[in-house]
Amino acid sequence: QVQLVESGGGSVQPGGSLRLSCAASGNIIGTNTMGWYRQAPGKNREFVATITSSGNANYVDSLKGRFTISRDSAENTVYLQMSGLLPEDTAVYYCRLTNLGRLFWGQGTQVTVSS
Fold first, then answer.
1. Which long-range contacts (CB under 8 A, 24 or more apart) does 23-28 make?
2. Which among 68, 75, 94, 115 is least buried, having the fewest CB atoms inside 10 angstroms?
3. What is the 3-state secondary structure (H, E, C) of the chain?
4. pLDDT digits 0-9 by tens, 13-38
5. How far is Cα 94 from Cα 44, in angstroms, rounded to an integer?
């Protein structure tokens, strides 16, 4: 089993920044892909960004330039640096890890952007 623990969420004013972290532990075998998804109230969970063990990153087009994903592969920790935050970025942000056909989710961390 694999455990994912997110941190770094909170409330911020429009235009502000936050950095989310997600630490993975447990039975992670070999290479893996970690990423972030988000779910706004009343909406489906949507893709934000992923990054492979080797550092290849992929983003949803609408967030390129404002959000940056990175990772410490030695520690199996992934980060999401968010800047220029907008009210529509308000959502629960979930960490995800895929490894050898297995899929794991974190519990989510709330991000609220409001003046």
1. 23/75, 23/76, 23/77, 24/76, 24/77, 24/78, 24/95, 24/97, 24/104, 25/76, 26/1, 26/2, 27/1, 27/2, 28/2, 28/76, 28/97, 28/99
2. 115
3. CEEEEEECCEEECCCCCEEEEEEEEECCCCCCEEEEEEECCCCCCEEEEEEECCCCEEECHHHECCEEEEEECCCCEEEEEECCCCHHHCEEEEEEEEECCEEEECCCEEEEECC
4. 999 999 999 999 998 888 899 999 99
5. 12
